[in-house]
Amino acid sequence: MQIEDLINHTSEWLKGTGPHSDVVISSRIRLARNLNKFPFPHWASKVQLNAILDKCSQAMGKVDLLKDATLFVLADLDSIDKQFLVERHLMSIEHTQKTEQKAVLVNNEENIAVMVNEEDHLRIQLMQSGFNLFEAWEIINTIDDALAKLLDYAYLDDFGYLTACPTNTGTGMRGSVMLHLPALVMSRQIERVLAAIAKLSFTTRGLYGEGTQASGNFFQISNQVSLGHSETEIIENINGLIRQIIEQESQAREIMLTKSREILEDRINRSLGILKSARIITSQETIELLSMVRLGSDLGMVKDIDRRTINELFIITQPAHLQKLEHNKLSSDQRDLKRAALIRKKLNLTNT
Amino acid sequence: MLCDICGKNPATVHLTEIIDEQMNELHLCEECARHKSAAMEQQFGLSELLAGMADFEKHSNKEEEPVTVKCPACGLTYADFKKVGRLGCGNCYEVFRKYLAPLLKRIHGSSQHIGKNPSSSKIAVKPSLKKKTGLAELKSQLQKAVANEAFEEAARLRDQIKEWEAREQKKDKE
């Protein structure tokens, strides 16, 4: 598989299906793992990093679930390709920096991605569409079991899996759920919800993980604590919290529908109108308007555009995706023109 | 209750700090809490925050400066860890165990792993691991009891854990 092959393909997690997919975009689990007797990436020499990359890629090649996957060596990619992989949520922004001896393994369905030599030797990630952490855990657990038979993991009975940063020690697990909460934002209840989440020692992040702002009503919620609870306990805790947030968002949507239906219809249709007719549009405005259209689709107000098309638009209107589609470097102004054209084409196609 | 900072709005965010067993409570309104957390985020990156926590452990332990302690496997000193907020290798956890255990406890509320382990992926659980799991289970129950503020239950569990650990130590010496 080449980077180019990914463009015309919709990631598994963007399908817009799965439990509670009106509020939950995707569920993600990642495991941090390190090899025994090798320094963590930030402290390792070039020779050691190469050896780590070799060992890991060999082991991954023998794992059934990773057989069809492709290893992208980051040093071979240009900056647009790297940004492209970030936009597809296949790797972190951190992974695009100092790329020597770094790699990312991606399977054909794009629901499995393994970063090699990021903050830890291995960052195994599994993404599912909708609210589906346990299913994600079952798959990632199988991959981890298979890798543990082939690799000597750094592990202690009392501290668990050893990681470069002590905030990941123990299970090395982070479960995240990407939520779309437009009604809680519009009804100004989101601050209260986010404050409650922080008090329960969960973290809220934006669309692209660590260090990114929440935009377009999207919030990624994940556990902070990785030690002292089992993997299933951690997932249960996240699930409990997410269920409550889904409930609150659904209630807020219900109230808006009964009390201010016209205002809501107006905002949603105006958003759709701008997207269908704009000639110049930034990615930030795109995300905000698409968020309203997605809400309209969830509420049955927008009938002729399916969720998958909307989900796809969130990704393909991002800067690196536009440039890959155009096979050309584009300035910010050029991108705003191309973006508007692409959105018009996609939305007016599904309309006729 | 009014906000401790502005004294005008009702306090809806409640923070509890525990430093040297001294409990300090802060009651803030949402706006002041937001300002406070924004100011804190500006001041501290994660590594500084961790380094600060590591520093705090040193003072509270009233022990000699651990900064010169060096991991023989990878050469990282405790001072390096304080600077970058990252350990050097798995062996660092053994070398800095004394300082890391309280740090992990502060970050996660526990320094005892409960969950899967690499050997469970390879072979059936060894008897020695099972024993550990029993102790780990007690510790997890203790945490739950504390979280639920079931203090009588917590006290009972704490005593059980102490007994268990004493037994283990005795066995180790024999």
How would you characterize the overall build of this protein?
The complex is a heterodimer of chains A (352) and B (174). Chain A has helices at 3-7, 46-61, 79-87, 133-150, 182-186, 190-199, 231-259, 261-277, 283-298, 307-316, 319-326, 332-351; strands at residues 24-33, 70-73, 103-106, 112-116, 122-129, 155-156, 160-161, 173-180, 202-205, 218-223. With 352 residues, chain A is α+β, with helices and mostly antiparallel strands. In chain A, the strands form 2 sheets. An 8-stranded antiparallel beta sheet of chain A has the order 2-3-4-5-1-8-10-9, with helices on one face. A two-stranded antiparallel ribbon of chain A has the order 6-7. The two termini of chain A are 34 Å apart. The longest helix of chain A is centred in the last third of the chain and has 29 residues, at 231-259. Chain B is mainly alpha-helical and 174 residues long. Chain B has 8 helices and 2 strands. Chain B has a two-stranded antiparallel sheet with strand order 1-2. Classes of the chains: A alpha+beta (352), B mainly alpha (174). Chains A and B meet through helix 4, strand 6, strand 7 and helix 6 of A and helix 1, helix 4, helix 5, helix 6 and helix 7 of B.
In short:
The complex is a heterodimer of chains A (352) and B (174). Chain A contains twelve helices and ten strands.
Class from helix and strand fractions of chain A:
alpha+beta
Shape of chain A: globular
Q: Give the integer mean of the pLDDT values of chain B.
A: 73
Shape of chain B: flat
List low-confidence stretches of chain B.
Answer: 123-132
How are strands sequenced across the largest beta sheet of chain A?
Answer: 2-3-4-5-1-8-10-9
Q: Cα-atom Rg of chain A, whole angstroms?
A: 21 Å
- Oligomer type: heterodimer
Task: Please trace the helix and strand order of chain A, writing H or E for each element.
Answer: HEHEHEEEHEEEHHEEHHHHHH
SSE ordering of chain B: EEHHHHHHHH
